[in-house]
Protein 1
Amino acid sequence: MTSFNLKSKGVIVDIGSGDGKFAYKLAKKNPEKFVIGVDSSTKPLADVSRRIYRKPQKGGLPNVLFIRSAVEYLPEDLTAVANQVFVNFPWGSLLAGIVNVDERIWENIKRICKKGANIDIVFGYDGLKDKTEVDRLNLPQLSKNYIYNILPKKLFEMGMDTVRIQKLYSSLLKTYPSSWAKKLGFSDGRSCYHMRVKVL
Ligand SMILES: C[S@@+](CC[C@H](N)C(=O)[O-])C[C@H]1O[C@@H](n2cnc3c(N)ncnc32)[C@H](O)[C@@H]1O
């Protein structure tokens, strides 16, 4: 991974970055940081991956790159590079790994972090509206006990401290700079949460 600028003041990794807009905006706003968007699917990343190599006047950015990888197989090159990780609106196996606290997934996310890094997860689903996915992935009900007690306890046992949990209402979602945040913010009021976990 030769274009990797490890001298930049901080590396941010966005896992499950979808269309890459969140990572792109983050990189644009923070030119001193290096941002890496990771997704298991290449299709949504195609446009943004082309855009970043254009001239700066046409949207090119030198401090962001996109990698195709599932969270299950994050490249060894990413080990201990991240000062901060985002996972915005995970779905599929990414969501299941996170909320079911699958050790393999969390150990992989932790592996790419430096000590003291923050992992910010924004997630939410609804037992009824998302029933097919909830049943398929065997997702737990997002009860207060699960979110505020069970999840943090499991993460602490794996060396991560949950320092913040906040319920996100649609007014906040509408202003959050990811495409899925906008979709959910303008739709049907699913409960979403922001959880910040610190790597000990
Ligand atoms: C609902 S989209 C959210 C996209 C983006 N973060 C946003 O907020 O607009 C979920 C993304 O997670 C990705 N994803 C699902 N399972 C994954 C996995 N195992 N590893 C990496 N990405 C995954 C999907 O390809 C998809 O782009």
Protein 2
Amino acid sequence: MSYAPLAPPGLAVEDRTQEIARELLERARREHHHLTTLNRWTKRVLAWSLSDAQLKAGVLRFIDCLPSLTTPQAVARHLHDYFPLHHLRLPAAFRLGVSLSRPGLLTAPAVSAVVRHIVEQVARQFIAGSHLHDALGLIHRMADRGVLVSFDVLGEQVTSDDEANTSVRRYTTLISELSTACRRLHAPDAVGDRPLVHLSIKPSSLSAHFDPVSFEESVADALRRLRVIARDAVDHDVAITLDMEQYRLRDLTLELARRLLVEPGLGERLQLGIVLQAYLRDTPQVFGELLSWLRDHGRRLSVRLVKGAYWDSEVAYAKQRGWLLPVYHNKRQTDEAFERLTEQMLSHRELVRPELGSHNIRSIAHAMAVAESLGSSKDAVEYQLLYGMGDAIQGAIRQLGFPVRVYAPLGELIPGMAYLVRRILENTANESFLRQDLE
Ligand SMILES: Cc1cc2nc3c(=O)[nH]c(=O)nc-3n(C[C@H](O)[C@H](O)[C@H](O)COP(=O)(O)OP(=O)(O)OC[C@H]3O[C@@H](n4cnc5c(N)ncnc54)[C@H](O)[C@@H]3O)c2cc1C
């Protein structure tokens, strides 16, 4: 099937988009008085790390390596390397901290403990917890607000078979414990036809050899483990979504989804989802091919449309190799592609269950306006937001009667660091919607 060109959005859709966006913004502002997007303290830390490009690079590199620094001396040494007192305009308190943390000084352990504490405080804004009771607590808190949850077990890109097997055990334990606990608590399995327990899975956590260079072997190795998780998910009525990671892993991830969907005895029972990234130039073509495949095989799939979380690393990776950029150059192109893909997704509801992963009021309002123009009911699209980001927007969407799911990472701080670094990049990118204050 070829990808049908879309008609330019009608004026009615544009007018309604703006009307709904105003309404959402108004409600989000009211919610904002008691729900902050990020707490003030985290905002201050993020604003400070953005104040200078060199400083931002230092903060991100430091956070990235902090998990592997096992002694206060190592923390002190890295503080000195990444925050040179002569070159950076550092706040007075931080300058004092860096000088007190010199590896030879007795104050180094105290400063190292303070630094770890600060990083943990920021991480807690984005990571829901590390225990089953944290997950259950969140399901309950969110259920009170009419919001569903998808859990993500932190940790990605495993480097050994043992690590990959551990990932599988984490996923299957979470599936059985969450569904058992929900049943014990008499929580319904599904809200409407939406599953209460939902898991997001990083394909790179399923195989130490997940590499397009050896495509068949990679798919076979990851599929072997994914099958175990999928069977458990079916047995416990849990839905799973394969998260989308770097561009180079995209085709492997889609192939995994296709293979699972045709597994005898499993494919037709599994509630499976994939993610499409609007910042990739070839996503419309890939989506068109996926729709044809679904039609030919008589399958339906959940599709979470996002803009894409790896923009900086995709650009760096392609530039290092002298390749054409797979992603758009400027944010506006990504935003426009997101809207075209939203229309495409909503026009094929017989093949896909649409989900929209965005905190951007314009992008969300546009999806609502398109769904309305197609005569769809309010539950045609599930609106998804990241835990700790956009709480006020989440409340506004619920108030208008649309389904909302929060994507909540679970796990320890240390394996969560890569995730945290990405969240920080998103929150401090100049063009990010979340930097625009609701006040
Ligand atoms: C529930 C949920 C699940 C998610 N799952 C995934 C996933 O599996 N895989 C994944 O990759 N991401 C995922 N994301 C993250 C998502 O891709 C975005 O990074 C994030 O939501 C920010 O986009 P926005 O629409 O909320 O905000 P906006 O501020 O409107 O958009 C920011 C986005 O615009 C794009 N952008 C920024 N600068 C430029 C530029 N110069 N040129 C081109 N594009 C640019 C980037 O994609 C950036 O993330 C998920 C998000 C949510 C809410």
